[in-house]
Amino acid sequence: MSEVKVEILAESPGVAPVPSSLVARTILVTLPPGSPGAPPHRHPGPIYAYVLKGAITFELEGSPECVIRAGEAFFEPGGDVIHYKGANHLDDEESALVATMICAPGLPVLTVVSQEELEARKHLRA
Fold first, then answer.
1. Residues 65 and 25: beta-carbon distance below 8 Å
2. Which residue, among 58, 86, 88, 53, has the nearest Cα to 70 in the 3D structure?
3. Where's the Cupin type-2 domain (predicted)?
4. Which of 24-28, 34-38, 82-86 is predicted with the least confidence, judged by mean pLDDT?
5. I want to staple 34 with a disulfide (CB 3.0 to 4.6 A). Which of 11, 12, 60, 91 is the partner?
6. What are 89-104's pLDDT values in tens digits?
7. Which H or E run contains 87?
8. How far apart are CA 101 and CA 20, in angstroms?
């Protein structure tokens, strides 16, 4: 019989306790080959995510675009920070990630940012 293996995939220091008025919502995001993902948007709370398969081209306000590959985890603060890109980096296969978001019950998973706001905040983009 083999032993159970526990591996830390990511750690986010300074995370506060979650008030009982909030929920932890876990979602599965599957992106078809070549998908650009959602337009620029915000999430209602912080997100802890893990790429299950494929690779995701990822960009948050204030950070350079990067590629997050299967087996890698990431943190997104949510709130006021704009999520510019969450696209499938691969043109020939599906990519998928699982994410847990901390937020108030009933809020949408994401809210699209208007073109006017994108223009007003363009100086904050890396």
1. no
2. 53
3. 28-84
4. 24-28
5. 91
6. 999 999 999 999 999 9
7. strand 83-88
8. 14
Contact 50, 98 (CB under 8 A): yes
Do the domain assignments include residue 77? yes
Tens digit of pLDDT for each residue in 11-34? 776 666 778 889 989 999 999 999
Provide the CATH number for the domain around residue 41. Answer: 2.60.120.10
Mean pLDDT throughout 27-51? Answer: 95
For residue 28, the SS3 value is strand
pTM of the full predicted structure? 0.87
3 state SS of 11: coil
Cα Rg of the chain, angstroms: 16
Residue 96 amino acid letter: A
Going 8 to 12 to 13 to 18, the CA torsion angle's sign is negative
Phi, psi of 76, rounded to the nearest 5 degrees? -130, 125
Is the distance from CB of 18 to CB of 100 less than 8 angstroms? no
